Amino acid sequence: MPKTETETPKMKPRPIVRLAIFLISHSLLVCVVCCTAGVLALLLLPLLAKNTYISENALMPGSASSMISNRDISEANRLASDLSGLNFEPQDAAALESRGILTKYMSDLGAEVSYHKFHHKPNQFHPLHFFSSPDSTSSVDNFSCSAQGVNTVGIIRAPRGDGKEAIVLVTPYKFGKSGTAETLSLSIAYTVFSLLSRVTWLAKDIIWLVADSQYGEYAPVEAWLRDYHTPVFTGLGALNADTCIKIDDLYALEQKPIAQTKISDGFRRAGTMAAALIFKVADRNELLEDTLNIYAEASNGQMPNLDLINIVNYLAVHRQGLRVKVEKVLSLLDSRWLEILGEIFEVLGKVARSLNPGWKFGISAADYVEGSATLASSLYNQALGIPTGPHGAFRDFQVDAITLEISPKVSSHNKARHNEFLLRGGRLVEGVVRSINNLLEKFHQSFFLYMLTSPSKFVSVGVYMIAFALLVAPLPLVAASLYADANQLDLGVKNTKSTTTAPDELDITFRSWKWLYAAKEVFLVHVWGAAVSLLPYFICQIPNCSPTSSSVIWVSLSMLGLLILYLIAGSPSTHVSISQHEEKGEWAILKSVTISAVFIGLLLMSVVNFATAEIGALLLVPMCLMAQPLKLDMKAGKFRSLFRVICNMVLGFVAFPPAAYFVAKTLFEGSDSINMGDFWNWMESLWAWNSATYIYIGMVHLPCWALCLHILLHSC
Amino acid sequence: MLDRCTMDLHCYSHFLVHSLLKELKGNLIIFFAVWFLSLQILLVLLLIRATGHTLQMAYRQSLNSLDIVDLLKSSDSLSSGDVAALVYLWNPFTIAACVGLSTSPVENLVVILALHGACKGLVPLAAFGWVMATHLSLYPAILIIPVILLLGYGPDTPPRKLFLQKGYGKNGDNHSSDNCGQQETNHSKAEVTFSWRPVIHFLFWSSLWSTYVLVLCSISVKPHGSLWEMFQRTYGFILTVEDMSPNIGVLWYFFAEVFDFFRSFFMIVFHLNILFMILPLAIRLKHRPCFLAFIYIAISSMLKSYPSVGDSALYLGLLGLFLDELADMQFSFFLLCGYIGVSLLSPVMHNLWIWRGTGNANFYYATGMAYACLQIILVVESVSAVLNHDRKLRKLSVTKLRDGNS
């Protein structure tokens, strides 16, 4: 009777299973093809970039003529001259005075003015900040009275609105010690603000935040936003009253000259923010024409809705004739290999067009180089996860925001030129505000996940994901094939064997659970990675520690940790039960588990922050796939294995995070300033800004590197 | 082993209390809640452990009676009860459920109570556990079948046919006329029969307990409304899927999308989905009631209207009980990777959708579907592993018989 069991006809597996088996059994070829295609697709991205278009119809940018008049400009000039007249007084008094003047001007326009006091506190280590909502509790922490700033907020209530929505304009301004550029940005904002206080079409409230930028531009905006979104029912004034008497005295003193205007003590709010524009005037002067720089990257590679960039770009280029720029990696602009690549693509594009005029993906080599430099910068800024300006604070509250940095052509001593510059800037902001004012819903129509290759070209998520997907696709395949090899699983390739071997293995073998040992090892290394990424928290507590010594302590402590871990758990005596036969496949199973862990990590990171995952995959995927015990390759002694040894060595060196950092630094910035402390500073900036990249490096990249090294040095 | 468990537990609760206290500034209620939950987990641990021992004893006994003891030598070092208890204790899902102050540890406790009572033959305890579990979360009601089977047949054994074959083989085998063999045959024959006495007891006790619970409930809800209203607010809430806020299940999305006039139809379909699987599984796995209970729990935690990770923690813990049977389970590594991946990806997707606003509901729902798929694979693979195990046992005993005969 039992015979019938074994003699059942061999079932033919379903096509999808057969396909999977085919792929797994040819994993080497698939690996090479996929990885090459992934890198190639990444290089092709500038070619595949699409032109931006305005997706939301309601925006209608530039459909109305600008209304800014000379009156607004002369008012703004008056404000500017009043403010700059104060500059030679002592700083504290000048700050108070200038704030008073600003308040007076604002309230003369009929705006509600309020002050927002905030306490600057240095960034703290929040390893899990990514998962939490912007926290409201931190405002209760103790603070020093000295590090206090005061934002000035003016709100215009919309005549046609119901007060449920608002548009935010932000100008960073150092009260008391501002330069001409900052005053210029303030006067542009004032121009727009005074216009907006008169217009009848306004449907959303306008909030003008003059951020006190003495502690950087990000901190005041962030503090204001946090207070804006967390209602405090006791009143902010009462909360702070007993702690900072000195400031309150100043506060009272400052209110005297403008006693006739009513400044509310409490926190003023308008509705939910539809969008925010941060604009400032750059100190440097452009040679050719007025230029507009757009900064959009917020924390963890989040971008504002593409429509916001589109309308700014559209209005700046087509209405105001500004030159719009986004950041580029300058060192890539004159790199030879990129140029050659661009020429190759250009030729290919021409050939393709001659074959079929419908195919127009060819772009000129110069465009290609430009596009890839911009793309590289976009990728880098997103991967870093550090916001490129105060707009990053808005994105944390789901508000789309960008920073506009306008650089005037020549220094603005010429009166007419100065007024024209004000007019241009004002009209640009007015146009953008008017477009956003038309919005019926939040920005949702266009892309959130994209990368810019030029101000008017972008690569959307659907395109750039292909490059990443191709790069990581071999990982599960190789993991599966290694696992199958190590377990001598029958994948249906050798059909004859299964029936003969089955009766022999009537023992409970726990064979399919053999990976548990490898999983344990991988898990321990990941725990080590987590511990390593928590170490800086303690190293920071050491007083008077220079970055160099900090990084040395960090590295040595991590190595010590790894050594201890290896001595405790990594010794081969812990698993005796593995027979000699299975010992051979041990490293293969370990590699398989490592690759699976890396796959999960990269997949996760690609959702959190795509750019980090892409760059990480470029480093990790080849290393993981190549890793094989050096001993085996040495023994083999063939050319191919020798080549693999060299590749492994190089990759093992490059993928070590500090090494990767220094290599990248030398490549892009030259080798003159290599300092051990730089790495520490870089990592510190990552965790200070709560970048997910930091967690990625600590919990995915570093453990994977350690495991790959372990595989390389495996004694098999 | 036990003191290791309790020590682990102590550290664990200590850690929980500390982290929570820091977070919530010494809230006393939280403190007690955490202690309460830790107590639940301790109880669950002990019960799982005891159940595991019972199951393993039964398994060994049946193997003994089948004369294939050599099968056991490889798994001697592992006690399935301990493994199950440790899996339950260190499962991140358990920790998450505990940190989140979810009530699922309580539900898990009563479910385990029912299974333990049934395994040990403690009828009142089994009835109490079952009634309370049904009262708390309704879905454990389907556990009545495994509980009855457990009480009727006793703990998990290889298929009954095997014992019969064995018995016939021994009976036909005339030259081995020692008493021991004869006794064993009688013993195994006795095991096959379904004993109705404990089942009747169970039914009696469960009706008693449920009347008791209902009376208590009616007394306590009297100031606020009737008992019927309580049913509507509790079971009705579970059955009609009123709350469609996102969870790790699949129903919320579906019912958010479906047209209103189809709603009741699909509600019936989805709930019948669980019920459809009860009978076939019960027929196929009637010789392994504990495993059947595990499968039921896994299926209901996949298809219930408001699933949580606490439910998964329960069935993953129970998975450890069947260590010997599942030793040759396929795709175990894939499943582990899938569980890790999904449980990490799901909060990130949720964050992307709810907090960052750059994703949408589909992102999160995709992880929910992946999770459901993983659970399906787990159920399918574990069932097939158990059936394969049975086949293997049959082969072994047949070869043994043949060897004995020849």
Automatic annotation (TrEMBL), chain A:
Please give the InterPro entries that the UniProt record associates with this protein: Gaa1
- TM region(s), chain numbering: 20-45, 461-484, 552-569, 589-621, 642-664, 693-713
Which GO biological process entries does UniProt record here?
attachment of GPI anchor to protein
Q: What Pfam families does the entry give? A: Gaa1 (PF04114)
Q: Which UniProt keywords apply?
A: Membrane, Transmembrane, Transmembrane helix
Whether Transmembrane helix counts among this entry's keywords is yes
Per the record, its GO cellular-component terms are: GPI-anchor transamidase complex
For this protein, the record's PANTHER family field holds: GLYCOSYLPHOSPHATIDYLINOSITOL ANCHOR ATTACHMENT 1 PROTEIN
Q: What is this protein called?
A: GLYCOSYLPHOSPHATIDYLINOSITOL ANCHOR ATTACHMENT 1 PROTEIN
Automatic annotation (TrEMBL), chain B:
| UniProt KW keywords | Endoplasmic reticulum, GPI-anchor biosynthesis, Membrane, Transmembrane, Transmembrane helix
- Give the UniProt subcellular location, in the record's own words: Endoplasmic reticulum membrane
Q: How does it sit in the membrane?
A: Multi-pass membrane protein
Q: Which GO terms describe its cellular component?
A: GPI-anchor transamidase complex
- For this protein, the parts annotated as crossing the membrane are 28-48, 83-103, 109-131, 138-155, 202-222, 234-255, 261-283, 290-309, 329-350, 362-387
Q: Which organism is it from?
A: Salix purpurea
This protein is called GPI TRANSAMIDASE COMPONENT PIG-U
Gene Ontology biological process: attachment of GPI anchor to protein; GPI anchor biosynthetic process
Task: Give the similarity note.
Answer: Belongs to the PIGU family.
- Pathway of this protein? Glycolipid biosynthesis; glycosylphosphatidylinositol-anchor biosynthesis
Q: Which Pfam families match?
A: PIG-U
